[in-house]
UniProtKB/TrEMBL annotation:
Transmembrane segments: none annotated. It comes from the Eukaryota. InterPro entries: P4H_N (IPR013547), P4HA-like (IPR045054), Pro_4_hyd_alph (IPR006620), TPR-like_helical_dom_sf (IPR011990), TPR_P4H (IPR059068). Residues 1-21 form the signal peptide. The keyword Chloroplast does not apply. Its cofactor is L-ascorbate. This is Prolyl 4-hydroxylase alpha subunit domain-containing protein. GO terms for cellular component: endoplasmic reticulum. Keywords: Dioxygenase, Iron, Metal-binding, Oxidoreductase, Signal, Vitamin C. Pfam families: P4Ha_N, TPR_P4H. GO terms for molecular function: iron ion binding; L-ascorbic acid binding; procollagen-proline 4-dioxygenase activity. The keyword Oxidoreductase applies.
Amino acid sequence: MKPWLCLVFFTSAFLIWHTEAEFFTSIGQMTDLIYAEKDLVQSLKEYIRAEETKLSQIKSWAEKMDVLTSKSTSDPEGYLAHPVNAYKLVKRLNTDWLELENLVLQDTTNGKELQGRHCDAFSFCCEGFITNLTIQRQFFPTEEDETGAAKALMRLQDTYKLDPETLSRGNLPGKCTVVSSALKGCLSTKTTKRLMLIFSLLLGTKYRSSLTVSDCFGMGKTAYNDGDYYHTVLWMEQALKQHDEGEDTTVSKVEILDYLSYAVFQFGDLHRAMELTRRLISLDSTHERAGSNLRYFEKLLEKEREKSSNKTVATTEPVVQSGAYERPLDYLPERDIYEALCRGEGVKMTPRRQKRLFCRYHDGNRNPHLLIAPFKEEDEWDSPHIVRYYDVMSDEEIEKIKQLAKPKLARATVRDPKTGVLTVASYRVSKSSWLEEDDDPVVAKVNQRMQQITGLTVKTAELLQVANYGMGGQYEPHFDFSRKDEPDAFKRLGTGNRVATFLNYMSDVEAGGATVFPDFGAAIWPKK
């Protein structure tokens, strides 16, 4: 027995010295390797599950985007005509694709993004995607664009009186809204209603899109950051409603209630602010800000009760109805008239006045160029006189002018009446460019055609201006001409003040797009 013990002693000593190389000499230790390998298999399976979950998310995104881009690329302008699609495109490129990139680069072993934006050895094939995304990102919309797109949706919401539910579901009003005024008086009531129904069905079905909880939450945050508590409440309420209905989202109810309760408080609705805050605390009892706010609200409520017990509330004090808040007044006095006309409401064209409107052929007071081929002219308004000419530009000419203008498009500016300096403004949302006759023969042709129609000379006309309106694009009520308090607005042109404006509509639109005149209640709808 002793020799065996000595053998064990020396063998053990030998193994201690060569512990990394001599497993084969001991079955006892080799059994440990069996369990070590089993553990490795388990961890490998966990890694595979994590990678499969990650790849499943990426694959789901890719499949969704494949369907979406197939639809959008088939008719880009038609797709973007739906403002919800336009907003979601800007948001995807500024926010969602960045989140996908982080997912692709995520190290599933520790849940962290890989350093240096490089894929590991197991996923080297993603480098091509990341490289392409990096190159494309320089052309992506920015945070400012996403904010502008959200504000554009809110502008459409206000102008066309759309509630968040309607806008979120993509159920926008069709052409019936914007052509109804043109149809009335021209067609029978039965025919008009039939056409209006057809137009409604056409719009929003082919390219209809909806807003998610995350989208609605993003809209609310944009309004909140701008100090716009009216739209904050509307969009946070919509986000909460869709969340309560069970929509899958990464946005928590706590986040929504945090913004909503404070925005409601800003309207003086203390009771509802407390109700929402209590709901938030019921979901997250550790939320410090909510707890602090609730204590503050309770103190304010107690003070109100003390005041009301000591004196009667004045009848002039506004009474806030829970959940119903008025849109605040803004800087534009004629806001209501302007927006009503944009909706086709309040147009002051009576049947009697309409009888004075006629259609005719126009030869430019026997202009030699128009004698053989006069233009079709239609009275749109009697006083002041507004006329429409048909088929002034061919589709080929329109496309050529768009092609020339597109590289030169820049944010449209207005002249500051105080400084005389050109600057961008929130009340003019579009891009424009100016074309000279030397740019292409088509520019000279169009200029000459306007001269022949109007009898005005192009020698004193400004350059041909091309305007492109994006989602929610607008130019609020303004004067095209220079008024008495700004006599030098066009001094640099050396041609005097403006006397006329000639608009060429180069596209048809699904809805909206009217040129309105608030002072005399006119709305002129675009026709290509």
